[in-house]
């Protein structure tokens, strides 16, 4: 016996599966034998789109009843990506502004998917970020669409802006609409005025009309203006924006530099400011004032800046503005050209020199001959009284001469006359000295000191044309060398006087005093003299036999010192007389104690007709009169009678050997 079966599928909603997504075969009625009858049923699931999980039941119908055979469960994972909106309307956007809107992509599928917008098909004024990426199941990716029109346009529609999604049979598309209008312009023109290469800054009011925090990037046109690259604004915030005008070229013939600054806001609105700049001729880079002594070489370093991005070559012009008619006594020197690398700085070396005191206003201009642009400095030199030009050292013994020479250059074309002045009386220089035009003159002077020692002096030369020339003099007068030796020769007990002569070099009347270092020599005070020969008497009175040396020192506060070596020779005493004495009378013979101490002398006569009175010890350098008496003998001899007086000292009294003096006596009758 056979059984008739009818297979059918039940429990699947049409919204989940299409009719042909899930099928089985054989379809229709089947005849199966009793007990052993069977057949194979093939179930096929072939979805054409993503299918969520589902459950279906395969049933058999026989004898009017449904019998479940098996349960089928399944799903189909696939890509299902869509945008939260497929149309964006930007409305009116200001020219050169940007408006941004946001859309969201959602992955409602079951697998990851890569996406990429076909930006190459976008118009220039439209852009989207991110342009590509990957989206996971259940994930949302936000996109920012920017509309930045440059040209004025009415309503514009951009259709079929597509994004390819991996695994999706069709791309995601977007439609954008918008228009471009002219920006509102500030009624007032912002004017700037400053010297070329200077700067002038002003602030512009900026208002954020939107409800969102934004960072905008102003668009500044005109190479002479600069400002911050961005400005951050809070919702509905008023703020100021600083912009600076730095012109690199002068505006001439009424022309002006033109520029603008444009602010665009996220809502597509914007604000435009018109800028005008006037670049005046440059001001002095610096006003330099330098004070220096006249006749001093001075070097001034002037920094030269190159404001261009290419090397510049400047020609240098140096002018003396004051005095109006400078002469050759003032000089400004420097190189004629200077080259400065791009956007760099170099120092220019300028040399200044003046002979005379005064104020000198100068101007140094650096000009680019090609473009005519220039920069300049005003430099004022205050020349004060000149200092010491040099120091001259002179060394010589007193009363001898040392000379020196100074050179003076006359830069003028005419002869100049110099007067000399030195308050030191020991310096001799000509009162006037002439120097021919454009030449050097040599002035010689002499130093003749009178007193030993060190001193300083100032030698000054002056010319109406060239001013003052000061020289420091370091003067050293060495002690004088000894003069010629003065010689003496006399006998012990006698003296020898010599007139010592020397020249008085002082220009004033002065007194000289002399002294010796040896008691055998004595000196008298010299008389005051002025500019003539001076004489001073020196006496030699020895107190012992032999050779004696000493030194005579002659000094004056004005005339200086003189040293004379003294050389004396002491000979044995010579006999003196005869001394004549008449009978019954007596005679006094003066005798001087030439020794340095009190001395006892003995007096002896060799003829009894003569008698001598002995004396007490004689003080040093004192004279004693020796009394000699004579009585003629009674024999009746008519005479004359002769005798000898001997005066002697004893060696025990401090003398190296005994000394004696002989006096011859002659007796005469009445």
UniProtKB/TrEMBL annotation:
UniProt xrefs under Pfam families: HYDIN_VesB_CFA65-like_Ig (PF22544)
Keyword Disulfide bond belongs to the record: no
One GO CC term, this protein: axoneme
Keywords, ordered alphabetically: Cell projection, Cilium, Cytoplasm
One GO biological process term: axonemal central apparatus assembly
Chain ranges of the HYDIN/VesB/CFA65-like Ig-like domain: 81-178
Compartments, record wording: Cell projection, Cilium; Cytoplasm
PANTHER family to which the protein is assigned, alphabetical: DLEC1 DELETED IN LUNG AND ESOPHAGEAL CANCER 1 (PTHR23053), HYDROCEPHALUS-INDUCING PROTEIN HOMOLOG (PTHR23053:SF0)
Name recorded for this polypeptide: HYDIN/VesB/CFA65-like Ig-like domain-containing protein
Organism: Zoarces viviparus (Viviparous eelpout)
């Amino acid at each position: 016996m056979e059984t008739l079966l009818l297979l059918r599928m039940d429990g699947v909603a049409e919204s989940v599966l299409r009719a042909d997504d899930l099928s089985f075969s054989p379809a229709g009625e089947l005849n199966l034998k009793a007990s052993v009858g069977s057949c194979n049923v093939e179930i096929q699931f072939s979805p054409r789109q993503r299918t969520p999980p589902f459950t279906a039941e395969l049933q058999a119908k026989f004898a009017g009843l449904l019998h479940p055979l098996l349960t089928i469960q399944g799903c189909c994972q696939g890509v299902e990506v869509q945008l939260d909106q497929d149309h964006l309307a930007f409305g009116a956007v200001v020219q050169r502004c940007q408006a941004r809107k946001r859309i969201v992509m959602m992955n409602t599928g079951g697998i990851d998917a890569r996406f990429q917008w076909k930006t190459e098909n976008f118009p220039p004024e439209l852009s989207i970020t991110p342009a590509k990426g990957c989206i996971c199941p259940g994930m949302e990716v936000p996109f920012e669409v920017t509309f930045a029109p440059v040209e004025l346009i009415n309503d514009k529609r951009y259709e079929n802006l597509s994004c390819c999604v991996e695994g999706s049979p069709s791309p995601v598309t977007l439609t954008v609409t918008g228009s471009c209008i002219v920006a509102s312009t500030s009624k007032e023109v912002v004017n700037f005025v400053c010297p070329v290469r200077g700067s002038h800054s002003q602030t512009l009011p900026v208002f954020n009309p939107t409800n969102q925090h934004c960072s905008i990037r102003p668009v500044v046109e005109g190479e002479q203006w600069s400002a911050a690259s961005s400005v951050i604004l809070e919702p509905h915030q008023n703020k100021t924006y600083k912009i600076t005008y730095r012109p690199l070229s002068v505006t001439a013939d009424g022309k002006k530099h033109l520029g603008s600054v444009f602010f665009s806001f996220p809502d597509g609105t914007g604000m435009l400011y018109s800028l005008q700049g006037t670049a005046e001729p440059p001001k002095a880079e610096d006003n330099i004032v330098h004070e220096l002594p006249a006749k001093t070489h001075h070097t001034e370093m002037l920094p030269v800046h190159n404001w261009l991005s290419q090397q510049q070559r400047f020609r240098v012009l140096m002018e003396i503005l004051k005095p109006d008619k400078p002469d050759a006594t003032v000089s400004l020197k420097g190189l004629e050209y200077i080259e400065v690398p791009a956007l760099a700085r170099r120092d220019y070396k300028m040399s200044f020199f003046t002979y005379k005191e005064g104020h000198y206003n100068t101007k140094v201009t650096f000009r680019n001959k090609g473009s005519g642009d220039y920069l300049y400095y005003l430099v004022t030199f205050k020349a004060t009284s000149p200092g010491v030009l040099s120091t001259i050292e002179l060394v010589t013994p007193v009363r001898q001469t040392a000379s020196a020479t100074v050179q003076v250059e006359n830069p003028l074309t005419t002869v100049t006359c110099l007067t000399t002045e030195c308050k030191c009386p020991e310096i001799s220089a000509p009162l006037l000295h002439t120097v021919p035009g454009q030449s050097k003159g040599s002035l010689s002077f002499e130093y003749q000191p009178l007193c030993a020692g060190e001193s300083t002096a100032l030698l000054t030369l002056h010319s109406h044309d060239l001013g003052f020339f000061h020289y420091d003099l370091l003067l050293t007068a060495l002690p004088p060398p000894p003069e010629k030796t003065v010689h003496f020769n006399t006998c012990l007990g006698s003296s020898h006087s010599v007139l010592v002569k020397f020249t008085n070099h002082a220009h004033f009347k002065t007194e000289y005093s002399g002294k010796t270092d040896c008691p055998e020599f004595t000196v008298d005070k010299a008389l005051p003299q002025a500019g003539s020969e001076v004489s001073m008497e020196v006496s030699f009175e020895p107190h012992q036999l032999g050779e004696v040396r000493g030194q005579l020192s002659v000094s004056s506060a004005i005339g200086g010192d003189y040293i004379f070596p003294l050389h004396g020779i002491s000979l044995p005493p010579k006999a003196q007389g005869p001394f004549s004495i008449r009978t019954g009378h007596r005679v006094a013979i003066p005798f001087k104690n030439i020794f340095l101490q009190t001395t006892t002398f003995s007096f002896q006569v060799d003829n009894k007709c003569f008698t001598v009175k002995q004396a007490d010890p004689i003080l040093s350098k004192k004279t004693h009169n020796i009394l000699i008496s004579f009585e003629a003998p009674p024999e009746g001899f008519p005479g004359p009678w002769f005798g000898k007086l001997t005066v002697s000292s004893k060696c025990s009294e401090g003398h190296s050997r005994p000394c004696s003096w002989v006096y011859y006596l002659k007796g005469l009758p009445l």
